[in-house]
Amino acid sequence: MADAAVSGTRTTRSAQRVLVAADKFKGSLTAVEVAERVTAGLRRVVPDLVVEALPVADGGDGTVAAAVAAGFERREVRVTGPLGDDVTAAYALRGDTAVVEMAEASGLQRLPDGVFAPLTASTYGSGELLRAALDAGARTIVFGVGGSATTDGGAGMLSALGARFLKADGEPPAPGGGGLAELASADLSALDPRLRSVEFVLASDVDNPLTGPKGAPAVYGPQKGASPKDVERLDAALAHFAKVLEGVVGPEAAEYAASPGAGAAGGIGYGALLLGAVFRPGIEVMLDVLGFAAALERADLVITGEGSLDEQTLHGKAPAGVAAAARAADKEVVAVCGRLALPPEVLGRAGIRWAYALTDLEPDVATCIADAGPILERTAERIARDFLS
């Protein structure tokens, strides 16, 4: 592999202030740790360099941590995990703005290693987390969704917020998306009234609809352990769920199901849209919430990145959002990553001038994952020598 991917002729110049705005290296380093390691490597070459760290996230797992790093207060609460057990989940609060991450309550991270529950995992805890934010006085809620263990269309979340779902025998359906096949009636009249007076933003890096070939079960179900038969069952159950809600909400229920973002995080996006949420690309929302524009204005060079720079990066992931904003402000951007799978011309169109991969220094991927921190520091030293001296 070449030393780096180039999207144009590199020029050497002296940057006085660097902004590190990178996402996590999934499975290796949090976004906060990425910023720390990059900063350490840069200062090894330029000891007096001014570095501003602004860890970023696109709405998925790590979103609360990014908000806390930007000055939000971390709040913890006991909620129901995806399998029904109690877990401690966190949200972030600053003033009357809350950042709530559904993965904190209902994410794959809450499942035991090697255990999946595609038909029965519930988003009930995510609803409890939203309720905690309301109890704390939140008037604006940024709801980051991604990394879910669930495919229940947000039914569990809605239940925690006051909705009532019943089978024909008057009993509630079993938790999870599979149980929705037996749903006979829905009652949303007792939903928490505070939801009507908050600004509710659905932040996601995916724009899938609820069902169909590009829907939540078909596209993301296999990642959660769903077999082909499970996918068919879940898709039919979610379609039935939307049909029952159409009888309560009206034609808007079907419109929401087909809307971008409805299929996010196992369909919890659909539930959020029913609650009045407005869908926005997650990285755009988070850059606003984190105060990225002001930090960008102070910077001469921006360093972004994530674990793998690939085609998915270009579709709403954090580095693409950071690079687009930086390019609009005429700031130079370089990227760090564990693995690089984009050619120079594509990087250039995304606004990334230069990309450095850990595999440039250590070709063995397993070693890169295990020793990501030290290798990233060495990578940052290369950036400092190339761009800051």
TrEMBL record:
User: Carries keyword Transferase?
Assistant: yes
A GO biological process of this protein is:
organic acid phosphorylation
| GO molecular function terms noted in the UniProt entry | glycerate kinase activity
The enzyme's E.C. designation: 2.7.1.31
Keywords (alphabetical) are: Kinase, Transferase
Q: Which Pfam families match?
A: Gly_kinase
PANTHER family associated with the record? GLYCERATE KINASE
Stated family: Belongs to the glycerate kinase type-1 family.
Q: What is this protein called?
A: Glycerate kinase
Q: What organism does the UniProt record list as the source?
A: Streptomyces griseoloalbus
From the broadest rank down, the organism's phylogenetic lineage runs: Bacteria, Bacillati, Actinomycetota, Actinomycetes, Kitasatosporales
